[in-house]
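Let's practice the habit of predicting before peeking. Look at the sequence and jot down your guess about where helices and strands might fall. Then scroll down.
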Amino acid sequence: MRVVCGGGEKARNLHTSRGKLLPRERIDRLLDPGVECIIVANDATVKGGTYYPVTVKKHLRAQEIAQQNHLPCIYLVDSGGANLPRQADVFPDRDHFGRIFFNQARLSSEGIAQIAVVMGSCTAGGAYVPAMADESIIVRKQGTIFLGGPPLVKAATGEEVSAEDLGGADLHCRKSGVTDHYALDDNHALHLARKAVRSLNYKKNLDVTVEPPEAPLFPADELYGIVGDNLKRNFDIREVISRIVDGSRFDEFKAFYGDTLVTGFARIFGYPVGIIGNNGVLFSESAKKGTHFIELCCQRNIPLLFLQNITGQEYEAGGIAKDGAKMVTAVACANVPKITVIIGGSYGAGNYGMCGRAYGPRFLYMWPNSRISVMGGEQAATVLATITKDQKAREGKEVRKRKKNTANLLNL
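Done guessing? Here is the structure:
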């Protein structure tokens, strides 16, 4: 709820007193059941909408989703640009502020529409957002675009100039030509944005056959009881699958081989998917099976859904390192859309083989009970305790005896 409230009551009141809509209000009034889009809206009630490191990361992630799914981008701009106290963390590197404009250029070159609506300040580097957009809209006496604002002009030349005269709607629509459409207020600007999207001649191209969606035969509410919040409790991943796929129909692949990894075909909301779900310790046979199934889905152009619940240890004697590497390679090279849902534990190399964030899933979701780490807490405590014990032994020091449980293992 605090996130929705933005920068607090005082900041919101100041924002709305200027005739501006709040960012989520702008989005609500923009949306309709038409073209699927990516929307990036600055919240000027939080630090003037300036870009912190996490802001840049979030913006770049939105552009990545747009590129992967060929979705038009709409930027609702109301930002003071890079946050100056944090400029070392947002300005010079590859995936910092400048990458936003690089992405805009690349997306536009790929035919992915870039539409900017300037609804407030658009300063310094941020001025490139509307300048590099395919189509841009600006609100009169509210939206401004300039590389250096009035204070910078005064410092450099001694001239006093208003923000509107320096970079307002009249200047950019009538003289500079930076913006294409002149809006009277926020609502008018959003209306113009909807008209711009309508003129895109956008067509959604699907490489898969879509069937009418069906509800699962078993209610999704039962997932709470099946999975639960105790990661040590075993459950059959098929019980989860039957509650998320259309008609609870699941055509399992290699059902009797490598049964600690469940693979098979299904449909979700009418779309075909290949599902890979952990069902115990990932043995060599399971990794081989997973590799085969991933390659099969790539051959048939079927998207992959990974259900992560990684448990146990890797079995080196069974060749899991080599076979696991083959599965990791298959995941890395898969040329179909990948979506990952972490429904339990996600530990160590298993995270890689089951398409963790490093392996480029288009979307990654975590259930509230899920955990991600190099290894589980108890295993980590045991490893650290062993290292401490060996170190003290080399130094000729005696290890103090304590009750052996997880809480004390780190206090040897």
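How did you do? DSSP finds 18 helices and 14 strands in the chain.
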